[in-house]
Amino acid sequence: DAGVIQSPRHEVTEMGxxxxxxxxxxxxxxxxxxxxxxMMRGLxxxxxxxxxxxxxDSGMPEDRFSAKMPxxxxxxxxxxxxxxxxxxxYFCASSLVDRGSExxxxxxxxxxxx
Amino acid sequence: xxxxxxxxxxxxxxxxxxxxxRCNYSxxxxxxxxWYVQYPNQGLQLLLKYLSGSTLVESINGxxxxxxxxxxxxxxRKPSVHISDxxxxxxxxxxxxxxxxxxxxxxxxxxxxxx
Lengths: 114, 115
Known about the structure:
heterodimer; A: mainly beta; 7-stranded mixed beta sheet; 0% helix; 54% strand; B: mainly beta
């Protein structure tokens, strides 16, 4: 299994531009999570999906952020417009819907907004 | 509200010395407890977890953690660390609320193993 795949691995963009981060979960997993990691705030859960349906988006910082999961094998996190304070590493993770299931994290996308 | 606290942001320790990374949680409901490890420039990986049963759980690389309900703690220990254990360690809890699972990660502890 290739694990969770994220693209791009690095993204540098200018303030005001739209940014789209992509994630392919592990085949067979039915939960998908988006996290943001910064030195100041640590690891924050932004949103997660069960069976392609958003379950908890209370961590999404503001309306500039949106996430979609059109099918079981693909999800996007979009920031429009981007701001310098959005600079962070964004992780996608997938798991089975179960209290005991571990989350498998992707390698992350390092976003820099100048 | 539920929360996870990792009081130590950084822990330096010499190679072959023992280490304990502390994790305390606050919860009014039952929780399931996890430790994840993050090596530089990588995503998190599961180290070990406690769901039920024996309160002492072990990982394949010598780490162990003990669930202490009365002290609401889930500290991570290793009797003898290696240079390769240098990484960031995250404590996490899962609990059921409002018809769904909720996930909370601690702020992480950076373990630096010194030669």
